[in-house]
Amino acid sequence: MKPKVNKWLDLLDRAGWTAVQASAGALIAWQATDQVGWQAALWFIGGASLVAVAKVVVGQNTGTDDTGALIGTPVIEPEVKD
């Protein structure tokens, strides 16, 4: 049985975590140096988030299934049958 994937929740999960990671990186760079201003940090977060959204949309619309995997093979392994 093929799993059913909610594409909106998949997009939110994948791109959302990328936004969280980009925010953490921008915050660290902003605090660690005086070379990164808050506007540059926002551009960094927004850019990374947009790339993540594009990656998820491309992944969801390509491949052999609807799991969003871009590696050319399903990421969900089939059940082992005894």
Explained architecture:
With 82 residues, this protein is an all-alpha fold. The protein has a domain at 7-60. The protein is built from two helices and no strands. The longest helix is centred in the N-terminal third of the chain and has 26 residues, at 7-32.
> Strand fraction band?
under 5%
Shape: elongated
What percent of residues adopt helix (DSSP H or I)?
55-70%
Structural class: mainly alpha
**Number of E strands:** 0
Largest sheet: none
Arithmetic mean pLDDT: 80
Rounded to an integer in angstroms, the radius of gyration calculated over CA atoms is 17 Å
What count of helical segments does DSSP give? 2
- Detail the poorly predicted runs: none
Q: Between the first and last Cα atoms, what is the distance in angstroms?
A: 17 Å
The succession of helices and strands, N to C, reads HH
In short:
The protein is mostly helical and 82 residues long.
Throw out a few tags for this protein:
mainly alpha; 82 residues; 60% helix; single chain; 0% strand
